[in-house]
Amino acid sequence: MKEVLTVVDMHTGGEPVRIVTGGYPAVPSGTILEKRAYVRDHLDHLRRMLMFEPRGHYDMYGVLPVEPDLPGADLAVLFMHNEGYSTMCGHAVIALGRYAVDRKLVETVEPVTRVGIECPCGLVVASVEVKDGKAGAVSFESVPAFLFARDQRIDVSGFGEIVFDIAYGGAFYALADCRQFGLEFGRSRAREFVDAACAVTDKVKRDFPLAHPDHADLAFLYGTILTDGGDGASSVATRNICVFAEAEVDRSPTGSGVTARLAAMHAKGEIEPGEARLFESVVGSRFTGSVARTMTFPDGRAGIVARVGGQAYYSGTAEYWLEDGDTLGRGFLVR
After folding, report:
1. Domains, the chain, ranges and CATH?
2. pLDDT band at 1 (very low <50, low <70, confident <90, very high)
3. How far apart are CA 74 and CA 65, in angstroms?
4. Is 6 exposed, middle or buried (0-12, 13-18, 19+ CB in 10 A)?
5. 160-168/75-80 β-pairing
6. pLDDT tens digit string along 48-104?
7. How confident is the model at residue 319, as a pLDDT?
8. What string of H, E and C letters represents the secondary structure of the chain?
9. pLDDT of 28-41, one tens digit each?
10. Among this protein's residues, is 89 annotated catalytic?
11. Annotated active-site residue in 89, 119, 178, 242
């Protein structure tokens, strides 16, 4: 490999966002899902090079900008991680909103600049706070989200019967109260949360076929979110941990996960449009969340559009390449 890959590194709530700024081959035109399939099938060696060691790590997360296809989109992106390519990523959208303003990819308007971001799940609109030309906090309106299955029960080896929901917030998640596993935030180890979440994910993938009203490519379980059972009301944040892809742990509260939780909460009558809620991650970072409005899918399914907000920061820039004979440099994982 003679090309140099250039990146800008950011993080949102502690979760990394490695944005590719140069060096990738051109991705053929088509829909965003077709672009996702092409990159998966033809350029996956570059994902492994950027996400895996020695340049990344097991829980690395990245963004590849591609040409937008949807009306209203200022940019389009593919998301990548340790397993492959996700359909939505809220923490990355928050970083991309700031990045788009700072890189002048959109016309800056104070006090709020709109950034339309085409994701594999659809168009997500970010609102970037701007003061004196500088971008600050970012919120976004999600693609339509919904509760797919409520109060389901499965027998999880080592834990017994577990009650959970399945909700979609740009990706599908199983949602479960961590107390069912004997876990407690601030006391239990991260490894215990990961083991419990992975056990749920594995079981749900086997036993619960998913369907999405827009596209079959969106109908897969991305991971499991374990919560503290709270609702984030009255300025008391509800804590959760999202374990997604191949047992990857999100350091942020998870934007698409917060969206899924809001959809489930609204379907259960636990939140009304306009009510603000607070969500906290395992590292203490926080996202705000609310139901911006309700909607109905063409098949009659009830859903919501959520608004999720947070703050992204820059970590640095880098250039990466692969020397002849460096087989390890192609990417590897220890954990």
Report:
1. 5-141+314-319 (3.10.310.10), 146-309 (3.10.310.10)
2. low
3. 11
4. middle
5. unpaired
6. 999 999 999 999 999 999 999 999 999 999 999 999 999 999 999 999 999 999 999
7. 97
8. CCCCEEEEEEEECCEEEEEEEECCCCCCCCCHHHHHHHHHHHCHHHHHHHHCECCCCCCCCEEEEECCCCCCCCEEEEEECCCCCCCCCHHHHHHHHHHHHHCCCCCCCCCEEEEEEEECCEEEEEEEEEECCEEEEEEEECCCEEEEEEEEEEEECCCEEEEEEEEECCCEEEEEEHHHHCCCCCCCCHHHHHHHHHHHHHHHHHHCCCCCCCCHHHCCEEEEEEECCCCCCCCCCEEEEEEECCCEECCCCCHHHHHHHHHHHHHCCCCCCCCCEEEECCCCCEEEEEEEEEEECCCCCEEEEEEEEECEEEEEEEEECCCCCCCHHHCECCC
9. 999 999 999 999 99
10. yes
11. 89
Name the amino acid, one letter, at 288.
T
The predicted model gives 298-310 an average pLDDT of: 95
- The string of pLDDT tens digits covering residues 43-64 is 999 999 999 999 999 999 999 9
Does the reported pTM lie above 0.70?
yes
Joined together, the tokens standing for residue 127 give: 């609102």
The pLDDT score that the predictor gives to residue 215 is: 86
